[in-house]
Amino acid sequence: MKIKSVDLAYLNVPFTPHTDKHLKYWLPHWHITQVCRLTMDNGIVGIGETIPNYTWSRVPDDIEDRILGEEAASLMWNDGIGAGVQMAIFDAMGKHENVPVHQLLGTQVRDYVPLSWWNMDMPAADWARQCADAHKAGYTSAKLKARAWQDVRGAVEAILKVVPEYFHLDFDYNGTLDNAANAVAHLKAMEAYPQVAMIESPIPQGDVAGSKQIRQRINKAIAMHYGSPPILTTLAEDVADGFVVSGGAKSIAEQTAIADAANKPYWLQLVGTGITTTWAAHLGAVHKAAKWPAITCMNIWKEQLIRDKIVLRGGFHQVLDKPGLGIELDEKTIKKLTVDYHWIDKVRHVYRYSRASGEVVYMGASKEDLQGAYPAGALPVCERGSVTLPYEDDGSKKFKEIWEAVQDGKTLRRFEGRKRTPAKRK
């Protein structure tokens, strides 16, 4: 069965309204998804999806030169052809052989797979809203972007008021706690909340000594992205309880072999709508170590792009047993959302970090800038009463002044609380 034609379509898939309130400042380019259709010489059509501004591997510009006229079976394990194309080849091969994709990937070990809700750092009320929505949708866990510039403890307390006791929280700090001293002090305080289950990358993963100290002193599971530090160092120094695993089918199989041998569970992290989430389910069905809830971020989009929607029960969804991926595209929605561009710029903004004392620090024009400027400024770690929000360009002189002041990693500090009253002399 040879590949006859390639059809790639860009879509602008809207976020849910509450998610867009925040992600429009950080990841508006995640609106863009690319749906791939491969037509075979026998008429079979395979489908797949790439999030081109994130995914482990974009579809190469010369994809037609690489795959047209080639035997589909010879390309199944080629991670270099891009996420959507590889997915579509597995889908087509499953349809051709009249078997579900998971039978092509390995031996099935589970028929239901866990899935987690996902979102970025937000103030307490917004995190509580996200987790309430997650519980209502059948999730039993949320993996959230915890950050040093938010009152994480206050946010946890707000969440616990709106979800049941069995709802778990996993926090990804992306290294923003900066060092082991900060991390241990903060994470020790988080031990007061049994619902906080797992901690990902509290400090930069290259700090092996610091990571080892954290794992020895913290009573929470610590996860790290597989491969950083090198896997032999990670295992020898025993700095992680489990991993974040992503990539193509071949890469995931290789990472799984090591995780299985070391008896280390992992999150399978493959970002996308219902199409990618279904692909992740087939992978999770055959890889024993994929025991932690997968992260596909499906919940951030208004549309799953598939006709029969994925429904969660008790935090799990069923692995489909139909030929190929087992899904059909929602053609009406796809047609409506198809666009002729593949990038969306961020709304111009800076970040306003405010403390309970009334002190305010303006930083960066992006979250990437913020992640450098915050620790460089030796600012407090998850201080009580602190909150960071985007301040959008409103055309004012004030914004222009702040914008110019925070370029090149600089910060602007002000007091914007109540007017201070001078202390009386005794």
From the structure above, extract its key features:
426 residues, alpha/beta, Enolase-like, domain 1, TIM Barrel, 3 domains, seven-stranded parallel β-sheet, 20% strand
Give me the CATH superfamily of the largest domain.
Enolase-like C-terminal domain
CATH topology label of the largest domain: TIM Barrel
Main sheet: which strands, in order across?
A: 5-6-7-8-9-10-11
What distance separates the N and C termini? 92 Å
Helical proportion?
25-40%
Query: Strand tally, please?
Result: 17
CATH class categorisation of the largest domain: Alpha Beta
Provide a concise account of the structure shown:
Helix content is 32%, strand content 20%. It is an alpha/beta fold and 426 residues long.
Task: Explain what the structure shows.
With 426 residues, this protein is of the alpha/beta class. It has helices spanning 17-26, 63-67, 83-97, 101-105, 124-136, 152-160, 180-190, 208-217, 231-237, 249-262, 274-286, 331-337, 367-376, 397-405, and strands at 3-12, 32-40, 45-50, 112-114, 117-119, 141-145, 168-172, 196-200, 221-225, 242-245, 266-268, 316-318, 338-339, 349-354, 359-363, 387-392, 411-415. The protein has 14 helices and 17 strands. Helix 5 (124-136) packs parallel to helix 6 and helix 7 runs parallel beside helix 8. Helix 6 (152-160) links the parallel strand 6 (141-145) and strand 7. It has a 7-stranded parallel β-sheet with strand order 5-6-7-8-9-10-11, with helices on one face. The chain has a 4-stranded antiparallel β-sheet with strand order 3-2-1-13. A 4-stranded antiparallel β-sheet has the order 16-14-15-17. The mean pLDDT is 96. The chain is globular, with a radius of gyration of 23 Å. The chain has 3 domains: 3-102, Enolase-like, domain 1 (2-Layer Sandwich); 112-324, Enolase-like C-terminal domain (TIM Barrel), CATH 3.20.20.120; 349-415, no CATH class. The longest helix is centred in the N-terminal third of the chain and has 15 residues, at 83-97. 32% of the residues lie in helices and 20% in strands.
